[in-house]
Amino acid sequence: MNLPILKPAVFWFIAILFHALGFAQALHSGSIYLVDSIDYLSQASNLSSYGSLYAAPWNLPIKPDYFSFRPPIYGMLICCIKSLFQTDYAILFIQSIISLSTIWGVLKFSQELRLNEGICRLIVLILLVIYPSQIIHCNFVMSDILFQSLLFWSLYFTYRLWTQKQLKDSLLAVLFFALAMLTKPVAFLLGISVAGMLLFIFIKQKRIQLLLPFLLLPLIYHLYASYNKQVTGYYHYSSVTPIFVLKYMAKYTNAQIHGETYADEAQDSIMQFANAAKTYQERYELMNQAGKEIISQHPAFFIWFNVKGWVAFMLDPGRFEWVHFLNINEGNYLGLYHVINTQGFLNGIIHFASNAPIVLISILLICLLTNIGISLCFIHFLGNKKVPMALKICVFIFISYIVVSTGVLGLSRYRVAVAPMLWLSVMYGISYFIKNNEHAHS
């Protein structure tokens, strides 16, 4: 089987063209904001005007959770961009550049792994077509593309540290881990988890000094949590934690057992007490504890819901981003994953299929089949004896960390963070298939 080999100049022309077409669609539709976008734009504005990380409009009633809701890096990036260009489309342009730099990094990594460069370039282009979330998310005012890049370079330098044992790789890995945890709170334990894994290896090899830079990560955690204590009165890393526990993990657990109406009413009742709390610490702990109590009452349902979320993470075709990117009127239908979890599997599918436009259903079916193929390549990657064990372990830790951390949500948007790692597994899978095919015909 002989696949066409793309030269670098042709590859980059097409890759840039794909990003330019995505940017043109954003200019045409103007649909560049998601619900979270207002948080990041508000934080950037508040940083510029008041030196505050508060992530909501300054002139509206105060939302206490939003003092520690968004870590600073993406807001700082927006602030820097908007100090030079007033239009939000400049943010999208920079994100396309970040995306292209990540793609360059993936190809550089594949070259170092001794995969066929021309074939890998072709695979990336195909993935940009059949996995369009990469281009779509470049054109939302959201932190996902930046976060993706930071995670990829964290993985790259972690692998180099493991295999080449150089202090500079440890320093660079820590730098990207630190930036990642200050971009999205979900990553706050990732670097520490990786350090724990490397500790067992480096103790045996008597190279433990290479992990000294990782001590900066708990220090950064402490400094940021101390800052949050200064502005809220409570030492914590992010207000996302109790919100996620109560409004997602607990709510959807309740919805599976008692129905969506009951789950909404239970959450509203808890939030009435939380909103009446005298201190932020009381509010945080009340929400967190109430959510955990609901989960603890139904552990089997919660575990099963998480497993479904992990599967959805890998397979979700991305209805939400398609609807917003193409500026489609959502009409009377809701997301498939939501209706399945609130109305049941069969009723949810019937509700979605009978209300969603046929064009959208067709697009999502193609994306679903693509995601199934990528997932199978990932499974093959983990079982392939020709893949370096260090690489398999690193990729598995990064992907499983993000999958488990996002848990019950199971959204395509969160898979963007680990897309480059999944691309590597596809590169290995196709390379393995081509070699087998060549041997069979030789």
Write the layout of secondary structure elements.
Layout: H1 8-29, H2 37-50, H3 72-84, H4 89-112, H5 117-130, H6 133-138, H7 144-164, H8 167-181, H9 190-204, H10 216-232, H11 240-258, H12 260-275, H13 280-297, H14 299-315, H15 319-325, H16 336-343, H17 345-355, H18 358-383, H19 389-406, H20 412-415, H21 419-440
Helix pairs in contact: 1-4, 1-5, 2-3, 4-5, 4-7, 4-21, 5-21, 7-8, 7-19, 11-12, 11-13, 12-13, 16-17, 18-21
**Could you state the oligomeric state of the chains shown?**
single chain
Rg calc: 22 Å
* Helix content range: over 70%
Number of strands: 0
Please provide the ordered H/E string of secondary-structure elements: HHHHHHHHHHHHHHHHHHHHH
Summarize model confidence as the mean pLDDT: 90
Q: First CA to last CA: what distance? A: 11 Å
Structural class: mainly alpha
Strand content: under 5%
Largest sheet, described in full? none
Count of helical regions: 21
| Mass-distribution shape | globular
Give a brief outline of the structure:
The chain is 74% helix and 0% strand. With 442 residues, the chain is mostly helical.
Give a verbal description of the structure.
The chain is built from 21 helices and no strands. By secondary structure, the chain is an all-alpha fold. Helix 12 (260-275) packs antiparallel against helix 13 (280-297) and helix 18 crosses helix 21 (419-440). It starts with 7 loop residues before the first helix and ends with a helix.
Highlighted features:
442 residues, mainly alpha, 21 helices, 74% helix
